[in-house]
């Protein structure tokens, strides 16, 4: 599938970046696990570290037609009750049903996709949960996408603004048009209509992103990943040593229920993955470890 | 909306039956709460009883066009960690989008619907969870429907067969054709493709049920409800005094996660309700109180 936007070199560079970002994020989160001194956390035992598990996509006889796979990294620790970082690179053909919904796939159903997806469920109800993913997709067209949100149980305006400013900086470095558009898209996307409430306090969301300049678009996607790497672990450190109450913990378990509702009722990636034979364990790694609908 | 199958007298009788069944089920479950002596349960405090909360459907100015509502009954007890019994009777017009999927609604969008829905999440991992619902719907046509399943964490063949025999008896009293068809329908419906596993050990499922004889069809739906009333509370009694381990409890929390996945990803009633502005609290009363995706 010759394609100027998304040639083999570009695919390799994107995949290598997602894997590098994974390594750096895992290291930053493991460092938090080592450094925590807080009273609740220390009672939970040893510092957690990431365990990796790879999976392969069921391939056809000819691996040039369909194949690939991914690596799940999971940490179950004393600060991060469950943190998952998935990287995957897969290729194949979209089913008849999905072709019409994917840009550039109706002419030729072949696709290539690589990305990173991060979900963090902290033990402390005072520390926001977070989700971040970025990806590169190639059909007869090619584009980048990404999204996520910060999901505090008890939102704090100053913390929220600090987080948003980091993404504004990352976007503004490329074009001042991006951030307002991506933030609005996020607020509309991470919303639960049946609860009439947002899942979290937002972040950014972008998709089908192709300015015609692959280098520039890739650089934006890298900066978005770096902004997460530079903000979330620091945010976690500001909260990791604070004790919490059982009432706060119960509020967190209920908030996590809303997170489950969003992912299973509305999240496009989750529904797309589950209904097209994706790796269930990797897709549902996003679900929170301890949840309540009281 | 004149309709021979589903006239006003029939509507009133169906609604009265669903409410009577609700009262009898609540009383039977409350009796179990009083009678339990088991070591785990007794440490959890007082016997639970049902609390009722009514809700009204957002009505148009003219209540002859749209209206109705329902009553939620919830028990949070020492045997039943969360048991919910909803009855509702609503009427109105289906949206453009849904008309084409509902028998008899494309000619005239008006509908009337009444039903009972029961979900029981026991505290003991040795006691199966259970779901049961039956309903009567009237459009330009009219019909009954129902369904549910028994959802044990640790299935026991003898218990399962005993439960199935009760529904076979209820169905066979009306026609020997029903049970095999309804059981197969249930097994196909309560299935999680992404896990390649059944939600529970089955029960029955039927829909669009109209033989042309309203009295006979109503009698079947009553017998189905009676079979649940006569089997589940007795089954609960055989398990209520057995102690369990933390490992068994954790297995139950994980199994409940599968229950959530089914309800939010596949259950037609849940998705239909949430996406058509139903009462969120009543619809999601089905979700389990303490759940894990470890």
| Highest-level CATH class of chain A | Alpha Beta
Mean pLDDT of chain A: 91
Query: Counting H and I runs of at least 4 residues, what is the number of helices of chain A?
Result: 9
| Sheet with most strands: strand arrangement of chain A | 1-2-3-4-5-6-9
CATH architecture of chain A: 3-Layer(aba) Sandwich
Structural topology:
Two copies of one chain form a homodimer.
Chain A: H1 8-35, H2 39-42, E1 51-56, E2 67-75, E3 80-93, H3 96-99, E4 110-122, E5 129-138, E6 142-151, H4 157-172, H5 178-189, E7 191-192, E8 197-198, E9 205-209, H6 214-239, H7 246-265, H8 268-275, H9 280-283
Antiparallel strand pairs in A: 1-2, 2-3, 3-4, 4-5, 5-6, 6-9, 7-8
Helix pairs in contact in A: 1-6, 4-6
Can you offer a commentary on this structure?
The structure is a homodimer of 294-residue chains. The first copy, chain A, is of the alpha+beta class. Chain A has nine helices and nine strands. Chain A binds chain B through residues 76, 82, 194-195, 257, 260-261, 264-265, 271, 274-275, 280, 283-284, 287-294, and chain B through 76, 82, 194-195, 257, 260-261, 264-265, 271, 274-275, 280, 283-284, 287-294.
Task: Summarize, please.
2 copies of one chain form a homodimer. Chain A is of the alpha+beta class and 294 residues long.
Keywords:
294 residues, alpha+beta, oxygen-dependent coproporphyrinogen oxidase, two-stranded antiparallel ribbon
């Amino acid at each position: 599938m010759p394609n100027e936007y998304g040639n083999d070199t570009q695919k390799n560079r994107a995949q290598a970046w997602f894997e590098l970002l994974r390594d750096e994020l895992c290291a930053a989160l493991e460092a938090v696990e080592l450094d925590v001194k807080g009273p609740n956390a220390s009672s939970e035992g040893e510092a957690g570290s990431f365990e990796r598990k790879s999976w392969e996509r069921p391939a056809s006889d000819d691996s040039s037609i369909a194949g690939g796979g991914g690596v799940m990294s999971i940490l179950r620790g004393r600060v991060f009750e469950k943190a998952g970082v998935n990287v995957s690179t897969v290729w194949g053909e979209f089913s008849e049903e999905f072709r019409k919904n994917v840009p550039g796939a109706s002419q030729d159903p072949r696709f290539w996709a690589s990305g990173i997806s991060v979900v963090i469920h902290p033990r402390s109800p005072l520390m926001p949960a977070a989700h971040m993913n970025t990806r590169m997709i190639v059909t007869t067209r090619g584009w980048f996408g990404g999204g996520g949100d910060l999901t505090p149980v008890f939102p704090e305006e100053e913390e929220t603004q600090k987080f948003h400013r980091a993404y504004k900086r990352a976007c503004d470095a490329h074009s001042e048009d991006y951030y307002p558009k991506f933030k609005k898209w996020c607020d509309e996307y991470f919303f639960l209509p049946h609860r009439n409430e947002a899942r979290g306090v937002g972040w950014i969301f972008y998709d089908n992103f192709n300015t015609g300049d692959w280098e520039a678009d890739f650089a934006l996607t890298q900066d978005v990943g770096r902004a997460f790497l530079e903000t979330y672990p620091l945010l976690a450190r500001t909260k990791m040593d604070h004790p919490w109450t059982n009432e706060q913990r119960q509020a967190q378990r209920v908030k996590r229920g809303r997170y489950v509702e969003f992912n299973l009722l509305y999240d496009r990636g989750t529904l797309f993955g589950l209904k097209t034979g994706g790796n269930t364990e990797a897709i549902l790694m996003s679900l929170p470890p301890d949840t309540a609908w009281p």
